[in-house]
Each structure stands twice: as C-alpha cells, then as structure tokens.
Fold this sequence. Notes:
Stationary-phase Survival Protein Sure Homolog, Chain: A, 24% strand, nine-stranded mixed beta sheet
Amino acid sequence: MSEAARPRVLVTNDDGVASEGLWHLAAAAAEAGLDPVIAAPAGEASGSGSALSGVWDGSRVEIERTELPGVAASIAAYAVRGTPAFIAFVATRQAFGFRPRFVLSGINNGPNLGLGVMHSGTVGAALTAAAHGVPAAAFSLDTRNLDGRLEWSAAAGVARQVIAVLLDVPVAGVLNVNVPNLSAGRLRGIRRASLAAPGVVQVAMAGPAENYLQVSVPGPPGEPEPGSDSAVLAAGYASVTPLRGVGEASPAGLPWPAAAGDQDLVSRCAAE
Length: 272
C-alpha cells in the first residue's frame, strides 16, 4: 500500500502520552497499514469519560510536539493539555491537519468492563469520535492482580486483528476491546461479549463534621455472567463489545405532542 493510500488515524488514550500501551497501539496501527498520529493527554486523565475540558490560554489549548521512544519512535506525537474526549472531538474537526478515518484509543492500563465504560476516558474518546461520524475502537489490558510482565505486545496483536475489521463497523459504531494479561501463546482467541453488570457503588456519609463521603466499589458478587465481557476475559479470551453512543429513545409514554414537522420522527421511534 502506497504512503498516500494509507488511511490516516488518530491514536489517543487516558493514561497520558508517556504510556507504553499508547505506543504499542500506534505501532500496531502502522503495522496494520494505517498512518497513525498520536495525540494524547499530557498527563493522567483516567475516569474523564466524555468530558471536553482542557487547560485554556484564552481560546487556545496547549499542545506540544513530543518525541516518543521504543516502538513509537517514528510516529508523530503530540502532548495535549486536554481530556481524551476533547482530543477526539477536535480531531474530527481536523485539528491535527486531517479528519481521521478511525480513532483508536488505548491501550489502557487496566480493563474497561460493563456499564462502567461510561466513566472511562479511553472509551469516552472512542464514543466522542463516533458521535461525530468517525468509527472508533477502545483497547484495554487487564492489569489487575498483576503477577509478572505487562503483555503489551499480545494486546497489540489483538488490536491489529480488530483494526482489520473496522472498515465494516457502522459509522457511529465503537468497539470496546479488553485483553487478558497473557502472552500471545497463552491467549485463547477473541470473542464477542455483552457488557457485564456493574459493581454496586456504596456511598455513605461519614458524618456532617467529617466533610467527606466514604465510598467503596466492591467487585461483582460470585461468578461473572456467562457471555459478558468480564466472563470472556476471565476465561482467557479478548472480549469485543460493540457500543452505541448517545441517541434518541422512543418517545412512547410522553404526554407532550410532537413539534410541527416531527411526526415522521415520532412514528419511526415508535416503530423501533
């Protein structure tokens, strides 16, 4: 494939531009025949979801060209003083000189599973890109209970396989990919999965004099639900879950009439 024919893609994350997982994802994109540009937060931005925020100087957000080591040494990279979703949003507006064919987010240090994905900066970047017409995928490595090395190379191998099918994903589609921390030889394959139920978040006031909330997030009780991303990951497979971003729900049951000209929309929603 000629240099001109290689689709240009944006690679971002929420662990920051210094994250090794980001470098491996960008290298995987290049190996898959894409032309990646890295634009990632200058620092840690985990848990930022789809927030569009940055460090502003008047109407400008700070950005710095940076040289990365290792597998990403030859890939153009920028450190941005903004959230992953902000970076994905401005990329769809050609902030880095092109409108990306895809946005690839990750590889996150830690899994993004179940309904908790709505809080992830890694997934938030992908959902933001899709909301603005750019297909995207988010990648995460399960580094919980780590015993040994981080298998970034194996996760990058999964990323290459997922990238190969992104052309078939609907314009508004997002693929959420979680990879167990296993070597390529021990990884059992890739399986489609549903979103696991989230853990119950328990919030209790410590007392009005303490001025803080005591918050605990226990893991899900018992075994994960069969077929869920948590179960697939625990079984030694990489999980792939297609996500849909923000969209209108059916207006059925609402007492208010539709605005003039909206009857067709109401009829379509009711039929879904």
